Amino acid sequence: MNAFDLFCLVLVLAFGIWGAFRGLLRQIFGLIGFVGGIVLARLLAQSFGDAFAKDLGLPVAVATAAMAIALFLVAEIAAKLIGRFLHKRMTGGFTKAVERGGGFLVGTGKGLLVAWVFASLIALLRPHLEHLETETSLAKLDLPHSHVLSVAREVNLITELRGPRKT
């Protein structure tokens, strides 16, 4: 395990601990708000943007972008408020333990995903940053021997680095 692997491990653990403090319901509703906001913005922004562009005399692209942001924020805020309300109701001994333990698990899952995306970006950029890796303090990370980067090269969340698969 090298410094980059250790950094990714600390990142995952930090997300897990943060998830335990936030609790399971707040974690889940935060995720629902994020995904729901994207879906709402994608489905409704164009029609609302067209209508507001006509009413307010704005360019359609500006009105659509503003509506997408507004719809995303409404969904995100509503989900966070519901999650916070339900989280405060989970005060009993057993339910509090489930809330904290579940929050830790969901937070750890989020941390794994964030670390994987970060490692995938590094794996994608590494061939183009040879001088940065050898001539700066990044050399201390020992990226060529990182287990996390080897996994990210095999299963890259950003793009397929190996090219098309041959069958």
Secondary-structure map:
Elements: H1 3-22, H2 24-56, H3 60-89, H4 93-125, H5 130-135, H6 147-154
Helix pairs in contact: 1-4, 2-3, 2-4, 4-6
Write up this protein.
The protein is mainly α. The chain has a domain at 3-111. The protein is built from 6 helices and no strands. The chain has helices spanning 3-22, 24-56, 60-89, 93-125, 130-135, 147-154. Helix 4 crosses helix 6 (147-154). The chain is flat and about 60 Å long. It starts with a helix and ends in a 13-residue tail after the last helix.
Structure annotation, total helices: 6
Backbone CA Rg: 21 Å
Distance between the termini: 34 Å
Give start-end ranges of low-pLDDT stretches: none
- Find the count of extended strands (DSSP E, 2+ residues): 0
User: What is the ordering of alpha helices and beta strands?
Assistant: HHHHHH
What is the approximate shape?
A: flat
Helix content: over 70%
Mean pLDDT: 85
Structural class assignment = mainly alpha
Strand content: under 5%
Main sheet: strands, sense, barrel: none
